[in-house]
Specification:
The structure is a single chain. With about 130 residues, the chain is of the alpha+beta class. Helix content is about 20%, strand content about 30%. It has helices at about 10-35, 90-95; strands at about 40-45, 50-55, 60-65, 70-75, 80-85, 105, 110-115. Strands 2-1-7-6 form a four-stranded antiparallel β-sheet, with no helix packed on it. A three-stranded antiparallel β-sheet has the order 3-4-5.
């Protein structure tokens, strides 16, 4: 009588469960960080902070002067994007809308960096002690 082949050793299942739970916890932590909505936009040109804009619900358009002539920014519904640029490949235009804290738009030929910054709401109650 032949034994069935054993694909797992004694502690393999415990190791697989540990690795799976670790990856799941890291994934869920990363998802909570990316859901923080930003409330301000910092615009850097030549590695220097030039402008700080508030993200607003109504539509606003701004012009930012850069090395290649400038870019047009559009803020609408708490999001920001680059609508036009003089760079050859226009990668900063193709990046689209950003709104979460930590999101960035980079225009390398323009030497432009647009970063959404925000703080977590302090209205939430973490713990109650009696």
């Amino acid at each position: 009588m032949r034994r069935k082949p054993c694909y797992f050793k004694k502690w393999d299942l415990a190791i697989y469960l540990f690795i799976f739970s670790l990856l799941f916890s890291l994934f869920s932590y990363g998802r909570t960080l990316s859901n923080l909505k930003g409330n301000k936009v910092e615009v850097y040109v030549d590695n220097q902070l030039k402008y700080v804009f508030d993200l607003q619900e109504d539509k606003k358009e701004y012009f930012v002067d850069t090395n290649l002539g400038g870019v047009n920014l559009e803020i609408n519904k708490m999001k920001i994007r680059v609508t036009s640029s003089n760079s050859p490949l226009k990668i900063c235009v193709k990046q689209g809308w950003i709104s979460n804290s930590g999101d960035t738009i980079v225009g390398i030929p323009d030497r432009l960096l647009i970063k959404v910054v925000g703080t977590q709401e302090t209205d939430d109650v973490d713990t109650v002690i009696k």
